[in-house]
Amino acid sequence: MNKLKGFTLIEVMVALTIIAIALASLIKASGGHTNSAAYLKSKTLAHYVAMNEVTQLQVDKAWPDLGTIRKSTEMAGVEWFWTREIKKTGDVTGNIRGLKFTIFLDEERTRNLAQIQAFISNPTQNILPVAAPVNSGASGATQ
After folding, report:
1. What is the pLDDT of residues 69-114, one digit of tens each?
2. What are the start-end ranges of the H helices in the chain?
3. Could you tell me the CA-to-CA distances from 12 to 9, 16, 23, 26 in Å, in that order?
4. Is 123 helix (H, G, I), strand (E, B) or coil?
5. How far apart are the first and last CA of the chain?
6. pTM for this structure?
7. Spatial separation of the C-alpha atoms in residues 101 and 25, rounded to whole Å
8. Secondary structure (3-state) at 22
9. Residue 72 in contact with residue 80, Cβ under 8 Å?
10. How far apart are CA 22 and CA 20, in angstroms?
11. What pLDDT, in 10s, does the model give residues 6-54?
């Protein structure tokens, strides 16, 4: 009588159960990594939007009014909704204002992705006098 060598049905079922559990946990982990990557991409782009708005104020040499405004900007094919708050600071001259940009992914502004706080100075007060070079007389070199 020949004895057949192989696995029993119970051994095969246990092996398949172990493989199914391992594959399910791998799928869950990869899904979590995908969600994290998408969230980090959105957060990074929202930060860029806020920094671009602050930089645009500096480039335009703007002196924005106090208060809050709500606008939107498009970047990377996505419309980003933002709120800009301009407040007074403790500067006694009144030439420095505090900015707070809050970037949202939705128009209702319920999902805050990034927030930037910065300071801007009055561009009309930023004019520095140009110092003339001092001649030494004999050599003609400046000091």
Report:
1. 999 999 999 999 999 999 999 888 888 999 999 999 899 999 899 9
2. 9-59
3. 5, 6, 16, 21
4. helix
5. 110
6. 0.67
7. 40
8. helix
9. yes
10. 5
11. 788 898 999 999 999 999 998 888 888 888 888 999 999 999 999 999 9
Question: C-alpha angle 116/120/122, rounded to 5°?
Answer: 165
d(CA 56, CA 51): 8
Tokens of 34: 């995908």
Domains annotated on the chain, with CATH = 39-125 (3.30.1300.30)
What DSSP element (H or E) covers 79? Answer: strand 78-88
Cα–Cα distance, 87 to 82 (Å, whole number): 16
Are the C-beta atoms of residues 101 and 86 closer than 8 Å to each other? no
Task: Give residues with Cβ within 8 angstroms of 119, minimum separation 6.
Answer: 89, 96, 97, 98, 99
Residue 133 is encoded by which pair of tokens? 């070079």
Amino acid (one-letter) located at 49: V
